[in-house]
Amino acid sequence: MKRDTIEKILFSNGRKWFKKLEDNDIQGLMELRLRVHRPWMVRLHNKEYFISESGHMINQEKQAYVITEQDIRETIEFVSNYSLYAFEDEVKHGYITVNGGHRVGLAGKVIVENGQVKTIRNISCINIRITHEIKGCANEVMPYLIQDKTVFHTLIISPPRCGKTTLLRDIVRQVSNGWKDFNGLSVGVVDERSEIGGCYRGVPQNDIGIRTDILDGCPKKEGMLMLLRSMSPDVIVVDEIGSREDIQAIDYIINAGCKIICTVHGGTLKEIQQKPVLENLLRKDTLQRFIILENSLGIGDVKKIYNRNRMLINAQEL
Questions:
Q1: What's the confidence (pLDDT) of residue 262?
Q2: Using CA atoms, how far apart are residues 255 and 282, in angstroms rounded to an integer?
């Protein structure tokens, strides 16, 4: 991660603190949370800290620097290059993607028009989520996903903050570029939240491979069908499925002979099986691999991998 991509969007006091960070801490930075009239908080190396008036990371809330309206205003100005209106389409979805692929989440007064979110005004909360590329983090799971010249239909199951998008991104890269004796395949990515590719002005800021086509900011259902019809991918990848429309599109993709790799929020395979919206997809036994993540050993920690029969597997058994 380049220092200046974060430093230049921070409010004045934030920049002073950021300049003091060691390179190791820069790489471990996950979130910066700004809430007006509330303590400034960051998540670093998967731990939460407050930032003190003197710019030190502390555990005591009472000694923390309190975010002001001016801090919020400055940050929004820097994030939007002094033209928030130019980002209206992104703002109505609750975030802006900045150079480097980092996502700036926004909360405040929501303006609704004809039953649809039009924009967010009086922004009072900002969450800067730092994108992290960890190349090679998918090495552990790649042997489970590949067979001969193709990949298995795969569902990654993960609670929040367990690195599912980071893992998914590296899977995309390796499937696209090729892995060991496996030749790369054409991959289509529907990146509805701009998290996989981290596109800035349409260009992926993250390495998602040489054979990857991406639809940035596109709804999953429409995007999957668009890619299938226009780009002829061997594999389609989507993050955080959850609606019936998503499942219907996945069913169509699989029946068309295209492989699917997707993620869903959850803690266990049993929990996922109890979600009504996923019932139809799981009942057909078309998904061939289930990867369960946790966070006990760090981001992207693979807990269990199951085959289509819901049997726990390992590399030797493959």
A1: 96
A2: 15
Q: 264 to each of 160, 168, 246, how far by Cα in Å?
A: 10, 11, 11
Checking DSSP bridges between strand 146-147 and strand 116-129, what pairing results, if any? unpaired
Q: What is the pLDDT of residue 295?
A: 67
Asked if the structure places residue 136 within a domain, the reply is no
- 119/191 same-domain check: no
CA-wise closest residue to 198 among 285, 80, 100: 100
Q: Looking at residue 244, which CATH number applies to its domain? A: 3.40.50.300
Task: Report whether 208 contacts 196 (CB < 8 A).
Answer: yes
Residue 194 included in any domain: yes
CA proximity to 113, closest of 86, 95, 88, 77: 88
- Give every CB contact of residue 17 below 8 A, 6+ residues apart in sequence: 51, 55
Residue 257, classified by CB atoms within 10 Å of its CB into exposed (0-12), middle (13-18) or buried (19+), is: exposed
Is the domain of 102 the same as that of 187?
no
Using 70 as the pLDDT threshold, list the residues of the chain that sit under it: 1-2, 295-300, 314-318
Distance between CA atoms of residues 200 and 100, nearest Å: 7
What's the number of domains the chain is made of? 2
pLDDT at position 315: 46
Same domain, 176 and 289: yes
Q: Tell me, what's the pLDDT at 316?
A: 41
Q: What CATH number does residue 72 fall under?
A: 3.30.450
Tell me whether residue 135 is in a domain: no
Single-letter amino acid code for the residue at 114: N
Where a domain ends, among 129, 153, 179?
A: 129
Give the start-end residues of each E strand in 63-170: 95-97, 103-113, 116-129, 146-147, 150-151, 154-158
- Per the structure block, which two tokens stand in for 242? 């959850």
| Cα distances (angstroms) measured from residue 297 to each of 200, 202, 288, 300, 301 | 32, 34, 26, 8, 6
pTM (2 decimals)?
0.82
Give pLDDT, residue 297: 55
